[in-house]
Design a protein that fits this description.
Elements: E1 3-7, E2 12-16, H1 24-33, E3 40-48, H2 53-64, E4 69-75, E5 80-86, H3 92-101, E6 105-108, H4 116-160, H5 162-172, H6 174-190, H7 194-205, H8 211-231, H9 245-277, E7 283-288, E8 291-296, E9 305-308, E10 317-328, H10 330-333, E11 339-341, E12 346-347, E13 352-353, E14 357-364, H11 370-383, H12 387-397, H13 399-417, H14 423-436, H15 440-459, H16 468-473
Antiparallel strand pairs: 1-2, 3-5, 3-6, 4-5, 7-8, 7-9, 9-14, 10-11, 10-12, 10-13, 10-14
Helix pairs in contact: 2-12, 4-5, 4-6, 4-9, 5-6, 6-8, 6-9, 7-8, 8-9, 8-14, 9-15, 11-15, 12-15, 13-14
Protein backbone atom coordinates (compact mmCIF):
# COMPACT_ATOMS: atom_id res chain seq x y z
CA UNK A 1 0.00 0.00 0.00
CA UNK A 2 1.32 3.43 -0.92
CA UNK A 3 -0.80 5.68 1.30
CA UNK A 4 -3.85 5.56 3.60
CA UNK A 5 -5.91 8.54 4.73
CA UNK A 6 -8.53 8.23 7.49
CA UNK A 7 -11.32 10.77 8.04
CA UNK A 8 -12.52 10.85 11.65
CA UNK A 9 -15.75 12.71 10.83
CA UNK A 10 -16.96 10.35 8.11
CA UNK A 11 -15.40 7.25 9.64
CA UNK A 12 -13.89 6.25 6.29
CA UNK A 13 -10.41 5.33 5.11
CA UNK A 14 -9.12 6.15 1.63
CA UNK A 15 -6.35 3.82 0.50
CA UNK A 16 -4.14 4.42 -2.51
CA UNK A 17 -2.25 1.30 -3.50
CA UNK A 18 0.43 0.29 -5.93
CA UNK A 19 -0.35 -1.12 -9.35
CA UNK A 20 -1.41 -4.46 -7.83
CA UNK A 21 -4.48 -2.85 -6.29
CA UNK A 22 -5.98 -3.04 -2.79
CA UNK A 23 -6.83 -6.36 -1.19
CA UNK A 24 -9.96 -5.55 0.89
CA UNK A 25 -9.44 -8.59 3.10
CA UNK A 26 -5.86 -7.58 3.89
CA UNK A 27 -6.96 -4.00 4.58
CA UNK A 28 -9.71 -5.23 6.93
CA UNK A 29 -7.24 -7.52 8.72
CA UNK A 30 -4.86 -4.59 9.20
CA UNK A 31 -7.64 -2.43 10.65
CA UNK A 32 -8.68 -5.22 13.03
CA UNK A 33 -5.06 -5.75 14.07
CA UNK A 34 -4.95 -2.07 15.04
CA UNK A 35 -7.89 -2.64 17.37
CA UNK A 36 -10.74 -1.27 15.26
CA UNK A 37 -13.61 -2.88 13.39
CA UNK A 38 -14.21 -2.18 9.70
CA UNK A 39 -17.83 -1.51 8.86
CA UNK A 40 -19.76 -4.49 7.64
CA UNK A 41 -22.82 -4.68 5.40
CA UNK A 42 -25.16 -7.43 4.31
CA UNK A 43 -26.60 -7.95 0.83
CA UNK A 44 -29.24 -10.46 -0.21
CA UNK A 45 -29.29 -12.00 -3.67
CA UNK A 46 -32.01 -14.10 -5.27
CA UNK A 47 -30.30 -17.08 -6.94
CA UNK A 48 -31.78 -18.95 -9.88
CA UNK A 49 -31.15 -22.35 -11.50
CA UNK A 50 -30.02 -24.11 -8.30
CA UNK A 51 -31.26 -27.67 -7.99
CA UNK A 52 -29.25 -29.49 -5.33
CA UNK A 53 -26.89 -29.06 -2.41
CA UNK A 54 -23.82 -29.19 -4.65
CA UNK A 55 -25.15 -26.05 -6.36
CA UNK A 56 -25.29 -24.35 -2.96
CA UNK A 57 -21.62 -24.96 -2.25
CA UNK A 58 -20.54 -23.80 -5.71
CA UNK A 59 -22.43 -20.52 -5.39
CA UNK A 60 -20.98 -19.98 -1.92
CA UNK A 61 -17.45 -20.57 -3.18
CA UNK A 62 -17.99 -18.17 -6.09
CA UNK A 63 -19.23 -15.44 -3.76
CA UNK A 64 -16.51 -16.07 -1.15
CA UNK A 65 -13.90 -15.54 -3.88
CA UNK A 66 -15.07 -11.96 -4.55
CA UNK A 67 -12.63 -9.50 -2.90
CA UNK A 68 -14.32 -7.80 0.02
CA UNK A 69 -16.75 -10.63 0.80
CA UNK A 70 -16.34 -11.93 4.33
CA UNK A 71 -18.81 -14.81 4.14
CA UNK A 72 -21.68 -16.05 1.99
CA UNK A 73 -24.57 -18.29 3.02
CA UNK A 74 -26.77 -19.80 0.32
CA UNK A 75 -30.14 -21.39 1.07
CA UNK A 76 -31.48 -23.89 -1.45
CA UNK A 77 -35.06 -23.76 -0.20
CA UNK A 78 -35.40 -19.96 -0.36
CA UNK A 79 -33.18 -19.70 -3.47
CA UNK A 80 -31.30 -16.86 -1.77
CA UNK A 81 -27.76 -15.87 -0.80
CA UNK A 82 -26.93 -13.73 2.24
CA UNK A 83 -23.56 -12.07 1.71
CA UNK A 84 -21.61 -10.38 4.54
CA UNK A 85 -19.12 -7.91 3.08
CA UNK A 86 -17.00 -4.87 3.82
CA UNK A 87 -19.11 -1.76 3.43
CA UNK A 88 -18.26 0.07 0.21
CA UNK A 89 -15.70 -2.54 -0.91
CA UNK A 90 -17.96 -4.64 -3.14
CA UNK A 91 -20.35 -3.57 -5.85
CA UNK A 92 -23.51 -5.68 -6.28
CA UNK A 93 -22.61 -6.13 -9.95
CA UNK A 94 -19.45 -7.99 -8.91
CA UNK A 95 -21.47 -10.44 -6.81
CA UNK A 96 -23.97 -11.04 -9.62
CA UNK A 97 -21.13 -11.54 -12.13
CA UNK A 98 -19.45 -14.09 -9.84
CA UNK A 99 -22.67 -16.10 -9.53
CA UNK A 100 -23.21 -16.00 -13.30
CA UNK A 101 -19.63 -17.17 -13.91
CA UNK A 102 -20.43 -20.19 -11.72
CA UNK A 103 -23.35 -21.01 -14.03
CA UNK A 104 -26.32 -19.60 -12.10
CA UNK A 105 -28.45 -16.46 -12.24
CA UNK A 106 -28.62 -13.77 -9.58
CA UNK A 107 -30.31 -10.47 -8.83
CA UNK A 108 -30.53 -8.15 -5.85
CA UNK A 109 -33.30 -9.11 -3.47
CA UNK A 110 -33.26 -7.04 -0.30
CA UNK A 111 -36.70 -6.69 1.32
CA UNK A 112 -35.19 -4.98 4.36
CA UNK A 113 -34.60 -1.88 2.28
CA UNK A 114 -38.12 -1.73 0.92
CA UNK A 115 -40.32 0.87 2.61
CA UNK A 116 -44.08 1.11 2.79
CA UNK A 117 -46.06 -0.46 -0.03
CA UNK A 118 -42.89 -1.63 -1.71
CA UNK A 119 -42.54 -4.03 1.19
CA UNK A 120 -46.13 -5.11 0.62
CA UNK A 121 -45.27 -5.63 -3.02
CA UNK A 122 -42.11 -7.51 -2.12
CA UNK A 123 -44.00 -9.91 0.11
CA UNK A 124 -46.70 -10.33 -2.50
CA UNK A 125 -44.08 -10.73 -5.22
CA UNK A 126 -42.28 -13.44 -3.23
CA UNK A 127 -45.57 -15.26 -2.76
CA UNK A 128 -46.37 -14.68 -6.43
CA UNK A 129 -43.05 -16.14 -7.57
CA UNK A 130 -43.55 -19.15 -5.33
CA UNK A 131 -47.09 -19.58 -6.67
CA UNK A 132 -45.79 -19.33 -10.25
CA UNK A 133 -43.11 -21.97 -9.55
CA UNK A 134 -45.72 -24.19 -7.93
CA UNK A 135 -48.07 -23.80 -10.91
CA UNK A 136 -45.35 -24.42 -13.50
CA UNK A 137 -44.13 -27.50 -11.60
CA UNK A 138 -47.71 -28.76 -11.34
CA UNK A 139 -48.37 -28.38 -15.08
CA UNK A 140 -45.14 -30.18 -15.97
CA UNK A 141 -45.96 -32.96 -13.50
CA UNK A 142 -49.50 -33.44 -14.87
CA UNK A 143 -48.27 -33.71 -18.47
CA UNK A 144 -45.45 -36.09 -17.54
CA UNK A 145 -47.80 -38.28 -15.47
CA UNK A 146 -50.43 -38.40 -18.24
CA UNK A 147 -47.82 -39.67 -20.71
CA UNK A 148 -45.92 -41.94 -18.31
CA UNK A 149 -48.93 -43.93 -17.08
CA UNK A 150 -49.82 -45.46 -20.49
CA UNK A 151 -46.12 -46.01 -21.18
CA UNK A 152 -45.74 -47.80 -17.85
CA UNK A 153 -48.84 -49.89 -18.57
CA UNK A 154 -47.55 -50.89 -22.01
CA UNK A 155 -44.23 -52.15 -20.66
CA UNK A 156 -44.98 -53.41 -17.15
CA UNK A 157 -48.50 -54.66 -17.88
CA UNK A 158 -47.01 -57.54 -19.83
CA UNK A 159 -44.84 -58.54 -16.88
CA UNK A 160 -47.76 -58.49 -14.47
CA UNK A 161 -50.26 -60.09 -16.87
CA UNK A 162 -48.55 -62.18 -19.59
CA UNK A 163 -51.89 -62.62 -21.38
CA UNK A 164 -52.09 -58.84 -21.89
CA UNK A 165 -48.56 -58.88 -23.32
CA UNK A 166 -49.37 -61.60 -25.87
CA UNK A 167 -52.72 -60.03 -26.78
CA UNK A 168 -51.17 -56.59 -27.41
CA UNK A 169 -48.26 -57.90 -29.47
CA UNK A 170 -50.64 -60.06 -31.49
CA UNK A 171 -52.96 -57.11 -32.11
CA UNK A 172 -50.47 -54.41 -33.24
CA UNK A 173 -47.09 -56.13 -33.28
CA UNK A 174 -44.02 -55.75 -31.06
CA UNK A 175 -42.49 -53.10 -33.35
CA UNK A 176 -45.54 -50.84 -33.12
CA UNK A 177 -45.61 -51.12 -29.32
CA UNK A 178 -41.96 -50.09 -29.09
CA UNK A 179 -42.50 -47.14 -31.44
CA UNK A 180 -45.44 -45.99 -29.28
CA UNK A 181 -43.22 -46.24 -26.21
CA UNK A 182 -40.50 -44.26 -27.99
CA UNK A 183 -42.95 -41.46 -28.84
CA UNK A 184 -44.36 -41.24 -25.31
CA UNK A 185 -40.95 -41.34 -23.63
CA UNK A 186 -39.49 -38.77 -26.04
CA UNK A 187 -42.29 -36.31 -25.29
CA UNK A 188 -41.76 -36.77 -21.53
CA UNK A 189 -37.97 -36.34 -21.73
CA UNK A 190 -37.87 -33.41 -24.13
CA UNK A 191 -41.08 -31.78 -22.97
CA UNK A 192 -41.52 -31.62 -19.16
CA UNK A 193 -38.06 -33.15 -18.69
CA UNK A 194 -36.14 -30.76 -20.94
CA UNK A 195 -35.21 -28.68 -17.86
CA UNK A 196 -32.82 -31.44 -16.77
CA UNK A 197 -30.99 -31.28 -20.10
CA UNK A 198 -31.04 -27.48 -20.26
CA UNK A 199 -29.32 -27.24 -16.86
CA UNK A 200 -27.51 -30.55 -16.60
CA UNK A 201 -25.49 -30.31 -19.82
CA UNK A 202 -23.99 -26.83 -19.17
CA UNK A 203 -23.08 -27.97 -15.64
CA UNK A 204 -21.32 -31.03 -17.06
CA UNK A 205 -19.45 -28.88 -19.60
CA UNK A 206 -18.24 -26.60 -16.78
CA UNK A 207 -16.92 -29.65 -14.92
CA UNK A 208 -19.40 -29.02 -12.11
CA UNK A 209 -22.02 -31.77 -12.41
CA UNK A 210 -25.08 -31.55 -10.16
CA UNK A 211 -28.46 -33.18 -9.69
CA UNK A 212 -29.77 -32.20 -13.13
CA UNK A 213 -26.67 -33.81 -14.62
CA UNK A 214 -27.40 -37.09 -12.86
CA UNK A 215 -31.00 -37.12 -14.08
CA UNK A 216 -29.90 -36.14 -17.59
CA UNK A 217 -27.27 -38.88 -17.80
CA UNK A 218 -29.55 -41.56 -16.36
CA UNK A 219 -32.57 -40.81 -18.51
CA UNK A 220 -30.53 -40.15 -21.65
CA UNK A 221 -28.71 -43.47 -21.23
CA UNK A 222 -31.96 -45.40 -20.81
CA UNK A 223 -33.67 -43.54 -23.67
CA UNK A 224 -30.68 -43.77 -26.03
CA UNK A 225 -30.15 -47.49 -25.40
CA UNK A 226 -33.85 -48.18 -25.94
CA UNK A 227 -33.95 -46.08 -29.12
CA UNK A 228 -31.10 -48.09 -30.65
CA UNK A 229 -32.81 -51.32 -29.56
CA UNK A 230 -36.03 -50.15 -31.26
CA UNK A 231 -34.74 -48.82 -34.59
CA UNK A 232 -31.37 -50.54 -35.02
CA UNK A 233 -31.37 -53.75 -32.97
CA UNK A 234 -28.81 -55.30 -35.32
CA UNK A 235 -26.14 -52.96 -33.91
CA UNK A 236 -26.44 -54.56 -30.48
CA UNK A 237 -25.11 -57.91 -29.24
CA UNK A 238 -27.56 -60.79 -29.48
CA UNK A 239 -30.10 -60.88 -26.67
CA UNK A 240 -29.43 -57.31 -25.47
CA UNK A 241 -32.00 -55.39 -27.58
CA UNK A 242 -34.31 -54.58 -24.67
CA UNK A 243 -36.15 -51.29 -24.13
CA UNK A 244 -36.23 -49.18 -20.96
CA UNK A 245 -38.35 -46.26 -22.13
CA UNK A 246 -40.62 -46.55 -19.11
CA UNK A 247 -37.63 -46.25 -16.74
CA UNK A 248 -36.56 -42.93 -18.30
CA UNK A 249 -40.11 -41.52 -18.17
CA UNK A 250 -40.77 -42.67 -14.60
CA UNK A 251 -37.51 -41.12 -13.41
CA UNK A 252 -38.43 -37.75 -14.93
CA UNK A 253 -41.95 -37.91 -13.47
CA UNK A 254 -40.77 -38.79 -9.95
CA UNK A 255 -38.16 -36.02 -9.89
CA UNK A 256 -40.79 -33.55 -11.15
CA UNK A 257 -43.07 -34.74 -8.33
CA UNK A 258 -40.32 -33.93 -5.83
CA UNK A 259 -39.87 -30.45 -7.28
CA UNK A 260 -43.60 -29.82 -7.17
CA UNK A 261 -43.70 -30.75 -3.47
CA UNK A 262 -40.71 -28.50 -2.85
CA UNK A 263 -42.37 -25.58 -4.69
CA UNK A 264 -45.55 -26.07 -2.66
CA UNK A 265 -43.58 -25.93 0.60
CA UNK A 266 -41.79 -22.74 -0.51
CA UNK A 267 -45.11 -21.20 -1.52
CA UNK A 268 -46.68 -21.79 1.87
CA UNK A 269 -43.70 -20.26 3.65
CA UNK A 270 -43.67 -17.22 1.32
CA UNK A 271 -47.36 -16.66 2.08
CA UNK A 272 -46.48 -16.36 5.77
CA UNK A 273 -44.17 -13.42 5.01
CA UNK A 274 -46.74 -11.89 2.66
CA UNK A 275 -49.34 -12.04 5.43
CA UNK A 276 -46.94 -10.25 7.77
CA UNK A 277 -46.45 -7.50 5.19
CA UNK A 278 -50.24 -7.21 4.77
CA UNK A 279 -50.67 -6.34 8.45
CA UNK A 280 -50.06 -2.69 7.60
CA UNK A 281 -52.57 -0.73 5.50
CA UNK A 282 -51.33 0.59 2.18
CA UNK A 283 -52.48 4.20 2.76
CA UNK A 284 -52.76 6.63 5.68
CA UNK A 285 -54.59 9.89 6.51
CA UNK A 286 -52.10 12.64 7.39
CA UNK A 287 -52.93 16.06 8.86
CA UNK A 288 -51.24 18.74 6.76
CA UNK A 289 -52.07 22.44 6.95
CA UNK A 290 -55.12 21.63 9.06
CA UNK A 291 -56.61 19.23 6.49
CA UNK A 292 -56.68 15.45 6.12
CA UNK A 293 -54.64 14.19 3.17
CA UNK A 294 -54.60 10.53 2.16
CA UNK A 295 -51.11 9.42 1.15
CA UNK A 296 -49.38 6.17 0.26
CA UNK A 297 -47.45 4.48 3.03
CA UNK A 298 -44.16 5.11 1.20
CA UNK A 299 -44.78 8.87 1.41
CA UNK A 300 -45.02 8.94 5.20
CA UNK A 301 -42.14 10.57 7.07
CA UNK A 302 -41.18 10.59 10.72
CA UNK A 303 -42.99 13.51 12.38
CA UNK A 304 -46.16 13.28 10.28
CA UNK A 305 -49.39 13.43 12.31
CA UNK A 306 -51.71 10.57 11.33
CA UNK A 307 -55.43 10.37 12.06
CA UNK A 308 -56.90 6.95 12.87
CA UNK A 309 -60.64 6.27 12.80
CA UNK A 310 -62.55 3.52 14.64
CA UNK A 311 -61.88 0.02 13.33
CA UNK A 312 -58.83 0.97 11.26
CA UNK A 313 -55.34 -0.52 11.34
CA UNK A 314 -52.48 1.76 12.31
CA UNK A 315 -50.11 2.33 9.38
CA UNK A 316 -46.82 2.95 11.27
CA UNK A 317 -45.40 3.25 14.79
CA UNK A 318 -45.78 6.49 16.76
CA UNK A 319 -46.98 8.39 19.87
CA UNK A 320 -50.54 9.61 20.52
CA UNK A 321 -50.88 13.43 20.40
CA UNK A 322 -54.69 13.81 20.59
CA UNK A 323 -57.73 11.66 21.40
CA UNK A 324 -57.97 8.27 23.05
CA UNK A 325 -59.03 4.72 22.21
CA UNK A 326 -58.47 1.05 22.90
CA UNK A 327 -56.06 -0.78 20.57
CA UNK A 328 -55.90 -4.52 19.95
CA UNK A 329 -52.17 -5.40 20.08
CA UNK A 330 -52.62 -9.18 20.03
CA UNK A 331 -50.58 -9.44 16.80
CA UNK A 332 -47.52 -8.30 18.76
CA UNK A 333 -48.10 -9.26 22.39
CA UNK A 334 -50.46 -12.20 22.06
CA UNK A 335 -52.71 -10.60 24.68
CA UNK A 336 -56.36 -10.65 23.53
CA UNK A 337 -57.47 -7.72 25.73
CA UNK A 338 -57.30 -4.29 24.01
CA UNK A 339 -54.94 -1.73 25.55
CA UNK A 340 -56.02 1.80 26.47
CA UNK A 341 -54.18 4.49 24.51
CA UNK A 342 -54.12 8.18 25.45
CA UNK A 343 -51.92 11.25 25.16
CA UNK A 344 -48.22 10.31 24.95
CA UNK A 345 -48.77 6.55 24.68
CA UNK A 346 -46.83 4.58 22.08
CA UNK A 347 -48.75 2.75 19.35
CA UNK A 348 -47.57 0.08 16.93
CA UNK A 349 -48.17 -0.09 13.19
CA UNK A 350 -50.37 -2.98 12.10
CA UNK A 351 -52.37 -3.10 15.34
CA UNK A 352 -56.16 -2.62 15.22
CA UNK A 353 -57.89 0.46 16.62
CA UNK A 354 -61.11 -0.01 18.59
CA UNK A 355 -64.20 2.22 18.86
CA UNK A 356 -62.40 5.50 19.53
CA UNK A 357 -60.35 7.79 17.34
CA UNK A 358 -57.03 9.58 17.85
CA UNK A 359 -54.16 11.38 16.17
CA UNK A 360 -50.58 10.23 16.57
CA UNK A 361 -47.15 11.39 15.45
CA UNK A 362 -45.16 8.88 13.37
CA UNK A 363 -41.85 7.99 15.00
CA UNK A 364 -40.80 4.99 12.89
CA UNK A 365 -41.71 4.53 9.22
CA UNK A 366 -40.75 2.27 6.34
CA UNK A 367 -38.28 -0.43 7.25
CA UNK A 368 -37.94 0.86 10.82
CA UNK A 369 -41.45 -0.12 11.98
CA UNK A 370 -41.95 -3.10 14.25
CA UNK A 371 -43.88 -5.02 11.57
CA UNK A 372 -41.01 -4.49 9.10
CA UNK A 373 -38.54 -5.73 11.70
CA UNK A 374 -40.68 -8.81 12.35
CA UNK A 375 -40.86 -9.47 8.62
CA UNK A 376 -37.07 -9.22 8.32
CA UNK A 377 -36.70 -11.47 11.35
CA UNK A 378 -38.84 -14.21 9.81
CA UNK A 379 -37.16 -13.89 6.40
CA UNK A 380 -33.72 -13.99 8.02
CA UNK A 381 -34.58 -17.07 10.07
CA UNK A 382 -35.91 -18.82 6.96
CA UNK A 383 -32.71 -18.04 5.05
CA UNK A 384 -30.47 -19.04 7.96
CA UNK A 385 -28.29 -22.11 7.73
CA UNK A 386 -28.33 -24.60 10.58
CA UNK A 387 -24.98 -25.93 11.88
CA UNK A 388 -25.83 -29.41 10.60
CA UNK A 389 -26.36 -28.00 7.09
CA UNK A 390 -22.72 -26.92 6.83
CA UNK A 391 -21.67 -30.57 7.07
CA UNK A 392 -24.20 -31.54 4.40
CA UNK A 393 -22.92 -28.85 2.04
CA UNK A 394 -19.32 -29.98 2.41
CA UNK A 395 -20.26 -33.57 1.60
CA UNK A 396 -22.52 -32.84 -1.35
CA UNK A 397 -19.96 -30.68 -3.17
CA UNK A 398 -18.10 -33.88 -4.05
CA UNK A 399 -21.13 -36.14 -3.90
CA UNK A 400 -22.24 -35.86 -7.54
CA UNK A 401 -18.81 -36.57 -9.10
CA UNK A 402 -18.43 -39.51 -6.71
CA UNK A 403 -21.82 -40.89 -7.77
CA UNK A 404 -20.88 -40.61 -11.44
CA UNK A 405 -17.66 -42.49 -10.76
CA UNK A 406 -19.53 -45.23 -8.86
CA UNK A 407 -22.03 -45.54 -11.72
CA UNK A 408 -19.18 -45.97 -14.20
CA UNK A 409 -17.58 -48.62 -11.97
CA UNK A 410 -20.95 -50.39 -11.66
CA UNK A 411 -21.32 -50.47 -15.43
CA UNK A 412 -17.78 -51.80 -15.85
CA UNK A 413 -18.19 -54.45 -13.16
CA UNK A 414 -21.37 -55.80 -14.73
CA UNK A 415 -19.77 -55.86 -18.17
CA UNK A 416 -16.75 -57.75 -16.82
CA UNK A 417 -18.34 -60.12 -14.36
CA UNK A 418 -22.04 -60.27 -15.32
CA UNK A 419 -23.46 -63.23 -17.17
CA UNK A 420 -23.87 -62.75 -20.93
CA UNK A 421 -25.54 -60.80 -22.39
CA UNK A 422 -24.35 -58.22 -19.82
CA UNK A 423 -24.91 -54.91 -21.64
CA UNK A 424 -28.59 -54.51 -20.66
CA UNK A 425 -28.17 -55.31 -16.93
CA UNK A 426 -24.99 -53.19 -16.81
CA UNK A 427 -26.89 -50.17 -18.15
CA UNK A 428 -29.86 -50.70 -15.85
CA UNK A 429 -27.70 -50.90 -12.72
CA UNK A 430 -25.55 -47.92 -13.71
CA UNK A 431 -28.67 -45.81 -14.33
CA UNK A 432 -30.10 -46.98 -10.97
CA UNK A 433 -26.98 -45.71 -9.19
CA UNK A 434 -27.23 -42.34 -10.94
CA UNK A 435 -30.87 -41.80 -10.10
CA UNK A 436 -31.13 -43.26 -6.60
CA UNK A 437 -28.12 -41.21 -5.47
CA UNK A 438 -29.51 -37.81 -6.53
CA UNK A 439 -28.64 -35.55 -3.57
CA UNK A 440 -31.74 -33.37 -3.84
CA UNK A 441 -33.28 -34.74 -0.63
CA UNK A 442 -29.99 -34.34 1.22
CA UNK A 443 -29.75 -30.69 0.23
CA UNK A 444 -33.41 -29.81 0.71
CA UNK A 445 -34.38 -31.59 3.92
CA UNK A 446 -32.85 -29.10 6.35
CA UNK A 447 -33.60 -25.77 4.59
CA UNK A 448 -37.18 -26.77 3.74
CA UNK A 449 -37.69 -27.78 7.38
CA UNK A 450 -36.57 -24.30 8.47
CA UNK A 451 -38.68 -22.65 5.79
CA UNK A 452 -41.90 -24.45 6.67
CA UNK A 453 -41.32 -24.52 10.42
CA UNK A 454 -40.51 -20.83 10.79
CA UNK A 455 -43.31 -19.83 8.41
CA UNK A 456 -45.89 -21.86 10.33
CA UNK A 457 -44.55 -20.52 13.63
CA UNK A 458 -44.92 -16.94 12.34
CA UNK A 459 -48.57 -17.63 11.55
CA UNK A 460 -49.03 -18.74 15.15
CA UNK A 461 -47.24 -15.69 16.54
CA UNK A 462 -43.94 -17.46 17.33
CA UNK A 463 -40.85 -15.75 15.95
CA UNK A 464 -37.36 -17.23 15.64
CA UNK A 465 -34.48 -14.78 15.45
CA UNK A 466 -32.19 -17.44 13.95
CA UNK A 467 -32.87 -20.70 12.18
CA UNK A 468 -30.31 -22.37 14.47
CA UNK A 469 -32.81 -21.91 17.31
CA UNK A 470 -34.98 -24.54 15.63
CA UNK A 471 -32.15 -27.06 15.82
CA UNK A 472 -31.43 -26.14 19.45
CA UNK A 473 -35.11 -26.44 20.30
CA UNK A 474 -34.98 -30.17 19.64
CA UNK A 475 -33.02 -30.61 22.87
CA UNK A 476 -35.28 -28.45 25.07
CA UNK A 477 -37.01 -30.37 27.87
CA UNK A 478 -38.37 -27.52 30.03
CA UNK A 479 -39.87 -24.16 29.00
CA UNK A 480 -40.27 -21.45 31.69
CA UNK A 481 -42.51 -18.37 31.29
CA UNK A 482 -42.43 -15.18 33.30
CA UNK A 483 -46.08 -14.87 34.30
CA UNK A 484 -49.51 -16.39 33.99
CA UNK A 485 -51.19 -15.16 30.85
CA UNK A 486 -48.04 -14.73 28.77
CA UNK A 487 -49.21 -17.63 26.65
CA UNK A 488 -52.65 -16.90 25.32
CA UNK A 489 -54.89 -18.52 22.82
CA UNK A 490 -56.84 -16.84 20.03
Amino acid sequence: MAEATVNLVTGRAHVEAAAGGVDPAAAATAVEAAGYAPRAATTTLAIGDMSCASCVRRVERALDAVPGVRSARVNLATRSATVDLLEGAVRPEALIAAVKAAGYTARLDDPAAQPGPDRHDHGAAAAGRAEHDHGASGRALILATALTLPLFALEMGGHLFPAFHHWLFGLVGAGSVRIAQFVLASIVLFGPGRVFFARGWPALRRGAPEMNTLVMLGTAAAWGYSTVATFAPGLMPAGTAQVYFEAAAVIVTLVLLGRWLEARARGRASQAIARLAALQPRRARVLRDGAEVEVALAELAAGDVIRVRPGEKLPVDGDVVAGASWVDEAMVTGEPIPVAKGLGDAVIGGTLNGAGGFDYRATRVGGDTLVAQIQRLVASAQADKLPIQALVDRVTLWFVPAVMAIAALTFGAWMLFGSAPALGPALVHAVAVLIVACPCAMGLATPVSILVGSGRAAELGLLFRRGAALQALAGVEVAAFDKTGTLTEG
